[in-house]
Amino acid sequence: MSQLIIANWKSNMSQAQALAWLESWAKVWQPDADQTVVLAVPFTLVGALDWFTAHQTQFSAEQQAAFKLAVQDLSPFPAGAYTGAITTENLQGFAVKYALVGHSERRRYFHETNQEVANKVEQALAVGITPVVCVDRDYLTSQAATLSSKEWAKCVIAYEPLEAIGTGSRQPAAEVEPVVAEIKAQFGQVPVVYGGSVDADSAAEYVGVVDGLLVGGQSLKPDSFNGIVKNFRK
Ligand code: PGA
After folding, report:
1. Which residue out of 23, 62, 103, 177 is catalytically annotated?
2. CA-CA distance, 186 to 147, in Å (whole number)?
3. Residue extents of the structural domains in the chain
4. What is the pLDDT of residues 158-184, one digit of tens each?
């Protein structure tokens, strides 16, 4: 299974900053055949970044092949009368391959429930977008109960312990390992990524424990994110 390293920019970056990030990224990043790098960006940046990666010659064919775009959320509803929501129909024509759903910040500040997260997963799966479903230990069983194993089989699960997110206090790999087993027992043999204060120095510790990483703060600078991508290699 190829490794998945996901940058979660959260609500940061103007269009100019995002394009500057990609220009620097194209210079420093040496793609690896066993890794896929995913950039999860605000909706407003999808168009510009999609255009850059497809048409700018400084982004090589190898980089293009190993790089995917993601959104950080999705509407739980189909296209229709839902003012302000971004649906999978709105994303048609853009090369969006993944969608983060149920991030703890969405659950916490926007009061998303397990059921809404499940509805978002269904919306994504209907158009072939791979959902990256974020869970913490205390609700992974209740989240798993919302959909069938057939649906979970098409998802990636991100284990994101709340106390590790954005705090600089990551969960050691030895503590992540048993939770990965719990996730696989509940959701099936899905790829599991870990997120929470990962940096270039700690990335190597998670190799072999998880199938990938979800990186917030340390993804905002191309150099620090590249350090993580390099050090996570098998
Ligand atoms: P962090 O964020 O790397 O800044 O802890 C991870 C996440 O929230 O996805």
Report:
1. 103
2. 11
3. 3-231
4. 999 999 999 999 999 999 999 999 999
Which of 105, 112, 116, 160 is labelled catalytic?
160
Whether the Cβ atoms of residue 8 and residue 219 lie closer than 8 Å to each other: yes
Residues having CB closer than 6 A to ligand 1 are 8, 160, 165-166, 195-198, 214-218
Smallest CA-to-CA distance from 75 within 23, 131, 25 is with 131
Residue 62, token pair as written in the block? 């190898």
Establish whether 103 is a catalytic residue: yes
pTM, rounded to two decimals: 0.97
Please classify residue 160 by burial: count the beta carbons closer than 10 Å to its beta carbon, then call 0-12 exposed, 13-18 middle and 19+ buried.
buried
- In the predicted structure, residue 1 carries a pLDDT above the cut 90: no
**Contact (Cβ atoms closer than 8 angstroms) between residue 58 and residue 23:** yes
Check residue 56 and give its pLDDT.
81
Tell me how far the alpha carbon of residue 196 lies from the centroid of ligand 1, in angstroms.
5
Q: Whose CA is nearest to atom 3 of ligand 1?
A: 216
User: For 190-228, how does the pLDDT look when each residue is reduced to its tens digit (9 = 90+)?
Assistant: 999 999 999 999 999 999 999 999 999 999 999 999 999
Provide the CA 142 distance to its chain's centre, in angstroms. Answer: 21
Q: What is the pLDDT of residue 58?
A: 85
Average per-residue pLDDT for the chain: 97
Going from the Cα of 187 to the center of ligand 1, the distance in angstroms, rounded, reads: 22
Closest residue by CA, ligand 1 atom 7: 216
CATH topology of domain 3-231: TIM Barrel (3.20.20)
- Tell me the C-alpha distance between 158 and 194, whole Å: 6
